[in-house]
Design a protein that fits this description.
Layout lengths: L5 H12 L17 E12 L4 H6 L1 H8 L6 H6 L8 E3 H13 L3 E10 L5 E10 L3 E10 L2 E13 L4 E10 L4 E9 L8 E9 L2 E10 L8 E18 L2 E21 L4 E16 L16 E21 L9 E20 L3 E19 L2 E14 L2 E16 L4 E14 L7 E3 L13 E3 L1 E17 L2 E15 L8 E11 L1 H4 L3 E9 L11 E6 L3 E2 L2 E2 L7
Parallel strand pairs: 1-4
Antiparallel strand pairs: 1-2, 3-4, 5-6, 6-7, 7-8, 8-9, 9-10, 10-11, 11-12, 12-13, 13-14, 14-15, 15-16, 16-17, 17-18, 18-19, 19-22, 20-21, 22-23, 23-24, 24-25, 25-26, 27-28
Length: 552
């Protein structure tokens, strides 16, 4: 199997999307008025379990006791409309989607209510929280290495929607990582968000900070962000699940972007600029494979570019049973395209400096060709030139499709192709195994510069529910290829079954996953037989793949 570099793949995938019959735009149904001038905004927030349930169940009372109920002002800060302004049912539906996207709530309802006066409506917002306290611990044994990990956090600190989390992981090779992160949902009661991450590893200390004013609604005209990074990372190169070489990269940088938007909400255009400054200090490679690893000299770079994006929205769908079990999931249908064009000044110790053009582009199309059949196509790529010759490129092509055959049954398929080439900076290999989508094989068992992954799942909601936990069942088939340069190697396949647990009040849109996989192809040095993996999160979702989870 052969493929070519990013420009050809990008054009091919983008052209393919234009051949798919596009679904007609649909408007979400409403049982009340569709528009009017806003008279009043009413907000009602609820705990994880309502009072009647808490009185009947000890567990419900305990969950409510350890949970901070979301404060009313947190919800009101997400509302951009003011009394006296015109409002439509589409804007009410948008606000409902935005509130669900915060991850704070198990249920959200936003609707317009008649007031008895002509051309006047009230806005009613009702929310019910999900449990925001999370605790986790686990162990693994992969490639002869034993690992332990623990996580604790609160996703709705004091009811303000802020997130505080800490984690620690260590393995029998002496590697460890401790990390703490804090996210402020509304910095100084504004629409700005910020995240601060601190970590300590066996390689050194790291700090990351990001401050962002995102686009808060479809008609929002401006967004920007700024951040800094200072970390020590160990870049590993794997063979058969074992790290046989590693390079220490001391990375420092600052970055920023600003974007302006205009046009109608369903045909939005974005334009802006991005910039970043980076410095990488490398240590020589260590390990048995070290002589084969090319390590560049210490590198400084500065990038500045212009970006343009287009969003052609055809409609929205509220669904369940695709990535979740009974939680409402929002899907945006339409065509999206973006590009960034700029130049990077790159200076490497011992090699000098030069100016290098860069291009990045992405396109995606989510559509519903027939009722209850959802398809998402995606293409992303980057290219960097030096003296007119490509020196680095990367590409990603993806297809995700889900067919709801009945109220309880969904057939899902995912196929993604990743490839990269780098002749100047440090190469980061792609891996494949239990940790990123090929169940039944050890984590990072296969490594290369190109990777093709396919997953098929038959997801079934059994209808069995106990203590708010909803049970789902899955049968699956996985296949993967990993190669170097422009060819892919031998396919590795597996089949299996699994269980899914969902709970709107306890997990929100999350799903606990327990899978049993049987590899169909032999791997030298590895035992045959069924393997088990577990995590919170599906292996693949509509428009994306899970990259890592706990495994054994």
């Amino acid at each position: 199997m052969r493929f070519h570099t990013f420009p050809f793949a990008f054009v091919l995938a983008t052209s393919a999307t234009l051949l798919v019959a596009q679904a007609d735009a649909q408007t979400e149904p409403t049982d009340g008025p569709t528009r009017g001038h806003l008279r009043e905004i009413r907000v009602r927030t609820g705990d994880v379990f309502d009072e009647a349930t808490a009185q009947k169940r000890v567990l419900a009372r305990l969950v409510n006791a350890v949970h901070w109920q979301t404060r009313e002002e947190v919800v009101r800060r997400e509302i951009w409309l003011q009394p006296g302004e015109p409002i439509t049912a589409a804007q009410a539906a948008e606000l409902e989607r935005n509130l669900r996207a915060t991850g704070l709530f198990a249920e959200v309802s936003v609707r317009l209510l008649a007031t008895g006066r002509t051309d006047e409506v009230d806005l009613e917002v009702t929310t019910r929280d999900r449990l925001s306290l999370f605790l986790g611990a686990g162990a693994s044994y992969v490639g002869g290495v034993t690992g332990l990990r623990a996580t604790v956090g609160e996703g709705n600190l004091l009811g303000y929607g802020d997130r505080l989390a800490a984690s620690f992981a260590q393995n029998s090779d002496g590697e460890f990582r401790g990390a703490a992160a804090y996210t402020d949902l509304h910095v100084l009661d504004s629409w700005h968000t910020s995240t601060l991450r601190l970590s300590r590893t066996d390689e050194g200390d790291s700090i990351d900070f990001d401050l962002r004013r995102p686009f808060k609604h479809l008609a929002d005209p401006f967004g920007y962000g700024f951040g800094l990074r200072h970390d020590n990372q160990e870049v590993d190169y794997y063979r058969n699940g074992d790290s046989l070489a590693s390079v220490s990269d001391h990375r420092r940088g600052i970055f920023g972007d600003s974007t302006w938007a205009n046009g109608p909400t369903d045909r939005r255009r974005f334009a802006g600029f991005v910039w970043n400054l980076e410095q990488h200090d490398y240590q020589p490679a260590t390990g048995p494979l070290a002589p084969e690893i090319r390590v560049p000299g210490n590198t400084q770079s500065a990038f500045a570019g212009l970006q343009a994006n287009w969003a052609h929205i055809d409609g929205y769908r509220k669904v369940s049973g695709i990535d979740t079990i009974d939680y409402v999931q929002d899907i945006t249908l339409g065509l999206f395209f973006g590009t960034t064009v700029g130049a990077r000044w790159r200076h490497e110790d011992g090699a000098g400096g030069d100016l290098q053009p860069e291009l990045a582009a992405n396109a995606s199309w989510a559509t519903e060709p027939i009722t209850n059949w959802f398809v998402d196509l995606s293409a992303r790529g980057t290219m960097r030139w030096d003296d007119g010759k490509p020196v680095g490129w990367g590409t990603n092509l993806g297809l995700w499709t889900f067919l709801r055959t009945s109220k309880r049954n969904t057939l899902g398929y995912s196929a993604t192709l990743d490839a990269k080439e780098e002749t100047q900076d440090l190469l980061i290999e792609l891996t494949l195994g239990e940790d990123n989508g090929l169940r039944g094989y050890p984590a990072r068992e296969f490594a290369g510069t190109s990777r093709l992954r396919m997953n098929f799942e038959d997801r079934y909601d059994t209808g069995i529910e106990f203590a708010t936990l909803r049970l789902g069942a899955v049968a699956f088939f996985d296949a993967g290829w990993v190669g170097d340069h422009d060819s892919l190697g031998h396919p590795y396949r597996s089949v299996g079954v699994g269980l899914r647990l969902g709970s709107k009040p306890l997990l929100g849109d999350g799903v606990f996953r327990l899978d049993f996989a049987n590899p169909l192809d032999d791997v030298p040095g590895e035992s045959d037989g069924w393997k088990v993996s577990a995590s919170v999160g599906q292996v693949f979702t509509f428009g994306g793949n899970t990259s890592s989870w706990s495994s054994q």
